[in-house]
Amino acid sequence: MPSARNAFAAKRLHFGETALILVTAMLFTVASAAVSYAVKVRCTTPSPGAKREWLYGSRLDVVPCYSDLMTMWHGRGLADHVFPYIHGGITPSGQLFGGVVEYPVLSGLIMWLSGLGADTDREFLWHSLLILLPFAFVTTILLALMTRWWVLLWAATPPLMLYALHNWELPVVCAAVAGIGVMAWGACADPTTGVRRWSVRTTAVVAAIPLGIGFSLKIYPGLFVLPLMLYVLTRGEKTDGRRPGLDWLGAAYVAASAVVTVAVTQVPFMIAGYEGWKAAIDFQTKREANLSTNSIWYWGLRFATGGETPTYTSIVDIASPLLIAGSFALACYLGWRTYRRDGAFPWLGVSAAMLAGFMLFHKVHSPQYTLWILPFFVLLRVRWWLIALYLVADSVLDLTIFHLLMNYSATTRAWVLAGVNFGVWAHAVVLAVLIVVFVNARPREPLASYLRAGTPPAGPLTRLAAADAEDARRWLGEPTLTDPHVTLRPLQLADAAALAQVAGAEDLYRWSSSVPRTTEAAVDWIRTALRDPHRVAFAVLDADGELVGTTSFYDVDRADRALAIGYTYYSPAAMGTAINPAAKLLLCEYAFTVCDAVRVVWHTHSENARSRAAIAGLGAVEEGELRKHRRFRGGWRTTAQFAIVDDDWPASRELLHARLAATASS
């Protein structure tokens, strides 16, 4: 067993790597935000009321300085510091007035707050950076904690630099990631009990709150409430092989949590200025799939209808919502099929698939929406080439669409049109593929382990630091071994409470100082076992499936194909039954026959006569005593060592079978 010093060193390595990831990701986030500001500030002016003639920037710009922030400042009453929605409305021609903006109420509130104290669009851009940057930081921190180094896909790729100050996407992305973070927190193992922190219901109800807030920022996080409801309806992850009944009440609680959150954020604006609140919705319903929307409708259907004709508009207005609804239904169907197969509804993958369908078929699509889907590339194990194709297409689209907007005529250069079409259609193809791929994608580590209330594997740098200590699991795996008398399965943190109850025989404490007596001690004991790279620990279950003890492979030496069996103890009721010989037979058969081990060793206290006799009864040969071999009760113990080698195994197998038969019949 690792010493306390080694355990402390391993823990220090883990936290050191986490700190390094956080610092690195935050530095990239700051750098991306700084570059974004430096690019966008070129479209601003230092004089009150002044406005660049071309907010798209110069035709010579490589990265466009256009930003919706400056457009909104000059065109939505922000420069006049009008509180949004309360006194405004929409004209018959579709023009907003009186402080109304075309986004949900919380985005409008953030825009108004950014304008306080600002007299120029440059000051407004600076204030917006100060308000939006904390949302980027929180998103980075959450993604880093859930995916380790994969967070750099968010913090160090072009989208954050291109779109951090392009629109007000960062708060809504933060809300969506926060909802996922709540799900990970609620499902992860409590350090004192080893079981999940919150129930499935409670976790999802709390997670629906940031998703409801996200709905009042930019709508799309509200879509994720549906797969969350289906996850609760099916009662979360399957843990015992059985499929329990559906939890309709829990699903209703999740929906109610989201609805109440939306109501709390929306109703005050509805009461104070209903016409202004409704104007934002009316504006969105009247938006057309035109050049500025980058949608598949404009760059596909328009050519079949002879332009932006009434027929074109009618088809888009009908087909877009129908196809969006169809993509949602497809994602949920695929998720339900996965649930029927695997026993758990893939709510995260279905959420991502629904977002992909929404982005694909919506009549409005802007380049900055890449920030919506980017966290799902970080969180889910999507093939690298799909991610790369999407990000390349996104960069090409952003670098060409504004040149097209500045000079959309017969003289527009061919490379601009080619770039826009490549970006739009590459996006479309990838999004269509992702509707299916996302549902089947597994979460990355450590998020996957958190969602299963498991112990995440060590990070890459921590593993490199211990590269000379090869993990026993790479040779032995983590098998589940069964026969009619006993089942050996990998030990889990959730076994802590049962394991603490097992160790009731005082004779155990006479010969071992490490047997846990409390749940908290059992959690630490299991954590130590699972983190030991030279050990594979098992829970021992009787024929009724009750946990009656534990045992382990340890001192695993793959190079010499040797291992030891130990850390074994059972409940008093299991002692003297068929459980121990059956377990030893399973372990030895697996070691010698499946893994081709050449040597299996047992260690016991030299004065433990009962244990020495039991090991000898397995057919193991006593090889001598090891003085001061193990720490024991503040001192040292002498260990008796026994072994079976591969040449001995056929005879030992017969002996074990005979002993098992005799014990089972007694």
Can you give a write-up of this model?
The protein is α+β, with helices and mostly antiparallel strands and 666 residues long. Helix content is 56%, strand content 10%. It is built from 26 helices and ten strands. It has helices at residues 4-40, 68-75, 105-115, 121-147, 152-155, 158-163, 170-187, 200-218, 225-233, 248-272, 274-286, 297-304, 310-342, 347-361, 370-379, 384-406, 414-440, 447-451, 460-465, 473-476, 496-502, 506-511, 519-531, 579-594, 609-616, 649-665; strands spanning 89-90, 96-97, 481-482, 487-490, 536-541, 547-557, 562-570, 599-605, 621-632, 635-645. Strands 3-4-5-6-7-8-10-9 form an eight-stranded mixed β-sheet, sandwiched between helices. The protein has a two-stranded antiparallel ribbon with strand order 1-2. Strand 9 (621-632) and strand 10 form a beta hairpin. Helix 16 runs antiparallel to helix 17. Residues 1-10 have low confidence and may be disordered.
Helicity, in percent?
55-70%
What is the SS-derived class?
alpha+beta
- The DSSP helix count reads 26
**What Rg, in angstroms, do the CA atoms define?**
31 Å
Instruction: Give the amount of beta strand, in percent.
Output: 5-15%
Question: Shape from CA axes?
Answer: elongated
Distance between the termini: 35 Å
Q: What is the number of beta strands?
A: 10
Major sheet: order of its strands?
Answer: 3-4-5-6-7-8-10-9
User: Which consecutive residue ranges, at least 5 long each, have pLDDT under 50?
Assistant: 1-10
What integer is the average pLDDT? 89
Largest beta-sheet characterization: 8 strands, mixed
